[in-house]
Amino acid sequence: MKTSHLRAWIFVHKWTSLISTLFLFMLCVTGLPLIFHEEIDAAFSDTAPLAASPVEALDDGTLLSFDAVLQTALAERPDERPLYMSFDIDEPVANVTTGKTAAVPDSEMSFFPIDRRYGEVVAPELAEEQSVMDFILRLHVDLLMGLPGMLFLGLMGFLFVVATISGIVLYAPFMARLRFGEIRRDRSARVKWTDYHNLIGIVTLAWALVVGTTGVINTLADPLTEIWQASELDTGTIANSGTAYTGKLASIDSALETARQEAPGQIIQFIAFPGVAYSNDQDMAIFLQGETELTRNMLTVVLINAATGKLEAVQEMPWYMKALLYSQPLHFGDYGGLPMKILWAIFDLALIFLLGSGLYLWKRKWTKRTVDLTETE
Question: Structure pTM?
Answer without folding.
Answer: 0.76
